[in-house]
TrEMBL record:
<dbReference type="Pfam" id="PF07228">
    <property type="entry name" value="SpoIIE"/>
</dbReference>
<dbReference type="InterPro" id="IPR036513">
    <property type="entry name" value="STAS_dom_sf"/>
</dbReference>
<dbReference type="InterPro" id="IPR036890">
    <property type="entry name" value="HATPase_C_sf"/>
</dbReference>
<dbReference type="InterPro" id="IPR002645">
    <property type="entry name" value="STAS_dom"/>
</dbReference>
<protein>
    <submittedName>
        <fullName>PAS domain S-box-containing protein</fullName>
    </submittedName>
</protein>
<dbReference type="InterPro" id="IPR035965">
    <property type="entry name" value="PAS-like_dom_sf"/>
</dbReference>
<feature type="region of interest" description="Disordered">
    <location>
        <begin position="460"/>
        <end position="479"/>
    </location>
</feature>
<dbReference type="Pfam" id="PF13581">
    <property type="entry name" value="HATPase_c_2"/>
</dbReference>
<feature type="domain" description="PAC">
    <location>
        <begin position="85"/>
        <end position="137"/>
    </location>
</feature>
<feature type="domain" description="PPM-type phosphatase">
    <location>
        <begin position="172"/>
        <end position="391"/>
    </location>
</feature>
<dbReference type="Pfam" id="PF08448">
    <property type="entry name" value="PAS_4"/>
</dbReference>
<dbReference type="InterPro" id="IPR000014">
    <property type="entry name" value="PAS"/>
</dbReference>
<dbReference type="InterPro" id="IPR013656">
    <property type="entry name" value="PAS_4"/>
</dbReference>
<dbReference type="InterPro" id="IPR001932">
    <property type="entry name" value="PPM-type_phosphatase-like_dom"/>
</dbReference>
<dbReference type="InterPro" id="IPR052016">
    <property type="entry name" value="Bact_Sigma-Reg"/>
</dbReference>
<feature type="domain" description="STAS">
    <location>
        <begin position="565"/>
        <end position="664"/>
    </location>
</feature>
<dbReference type="InterPro" id="IPR003594">
    <property type="entry name" value="HATPase_dom"/>
</dbReference>
Amino acid sequence: MTRSGGAADREDTLAAGEAFEAMPVALARLRGADLRFAAANAAYRALVGTEDLLDRPAREVLSEDGEQRLLPAIERVLATGQPASSVERHVVVAGGRGLWLDSVLAPVHDDDGALVGVDVYAADVTERVEARLEAEQRARHAESKYARARELVVAMQDAMLPHGVPILPHVDVAARYLLAEGDTRAGGDWFDALVLDDGRVALAVGDVVGHGVAASTVMGQLRAVLRAAVCEHGDPLRAVEFLDRYARADPAASSTSLVLAVLSADADRVDYVTAGHPPPLVVPATGQPRFLPGSGSGTLGSGLPFHQVREDLDPGDLLVLYSDGLVERPGRTAPHSSLELVTAAREARDAVGGRHARGSTGADAVCEEVLDRLTRRTGYADDISVLAVQRRDGEGGPGPAPHLELVIDVEAGRRQDVREARAAITEWLEDLGVGDADAMALTHAAHEIVTNAVEHAFAEEGEPDHGPVPVPSRSGTVTVEGRVRRDGRLDLEVRDDGRWRPPVARSTARGDRGRGLAMAAALVDDLAVVGREGGTRVVLTHHAQRAATLLTGQGGYDDEHVGDFDLEETSSGDRTTVRAYGELDLAATAELESALLAAPRGAGSELVVDLSEVTLLCSAAVQVLSEALRRDDRVGVGQTTLLAEVGSPAQRVLDLVRLPHRTA
């Protein structure tokens, strides 16, 4: 039978419709400016979860969220006539179900070539996308967990290891500790440096076998026991034998390696014991570095006897102790690593050549250069400790530690600015490499004593204080001297040739102004005041240390605003914030006081005094802040809040004087 043309067309149309309906790919045609559904096959209806699609606008069916939206892409195809693909677009369909779709979008033209709609070919990729998103979430969680674990490791190592090494007049001591890359396990390496009563210097580097909290705990115990043994016996052999007896009672301490060296008081001789540990390296002022002979002893708990070796040191010699992580680096044999260490030490010495940054020493610079040169080549798989010491005699090495001597001329009738003296003290401490915490304590304490001398020593008997910056009635001098003791303590002496005025309780218009001396005494280890007819002598003594650098990339207190003082005031609603920057000394106190008094106050208001960027907070400023807090209680209008960044100089002083404050 022959089909008529009309019947054939109807059959073809029916077949095409059935094929469209049965296709496994989700297909739909959208027509008109509002993109209404003209057709949708079974796969598409199942995808969006509804049979009711015909003549409905796409916006009613495909709700969207997030940035990867599908509808704007369809509208662009309708507007431009250009086909497009859409990858991993998120839509929300019937029942609030979210889908991720990959789509191909094709323009639809009528017989005249006019754009009339868009064909949508969609594939559900929800399972694939959600699996990837879940994996990414797990990765982010693991990364966050790793970061927290590493922060804990760093904190643990920082707590277990010494925070500094001694500053001495006749030798330079420097230390570096490099935490293993990618390692979240606390290590067992340690180092230590201490000054003995007779002026000798004990140096130790050790390595407990294993990692984790247990190894770190054993490390802390061994370091404490060894320190006590060295102080008690003063002899490296007897100290190591004592530590060995302790280690044999604790299986976790077995196989610990150690090198203990004691430098003579004149730094021209070293006695040492190597207990299963690499021997010290001597880097001379010129020529090839050399390893000292090992003492032939086994690790702690090995049962082997220990032996002590004595070696002479020449002027300018740099003695380096290190943990095995420095010579047991990836891809290197022990002989190759040892040869590289010798080469790196020689290159570092030649590169430094007496040139190093303020606050750094030759020993500091060589430690840093050696670490950088070796680990940059191969990386490192274990923690690394490096401890270096060098004679300060000027013969091939650095000269003796610098002294400070400064004379301040006090002129009658002229307000005295002590900033020059403070700057000289700060520069001296920087030259010595004093760590931030000790430098802050000494700078603040010295500022109080110098200010006290200028303020009171040259006033007439019975003369009251006038204003924040008193004007002396008589001329004279204030002398400041600083020196480093052989026991590792720093002395700062301030003496004047004015009138001795015994401390008495004074009540002035500014309240109790006697807190400066007490604050200075609390900041340093010792403060002695000697009054005499010809003036007053005050000696500050403090056991200052050079920072022993734990290399972890951590940041610390930001001291960007150093030097001149500045104030910034901002307001928001009932809150006024006064931010102080720089040195809040006696001269700047009046400016701060004026700003606090002028700040708008009212019922329910708050005045925030942000001291986070203050690098010096003198006792006069403390008094102004104290009065501001008391004024709140007395007047009962508004509230004053003191704010200081954790670890900043202001926060330490506020803690010291017990002024209520919040930390940023």
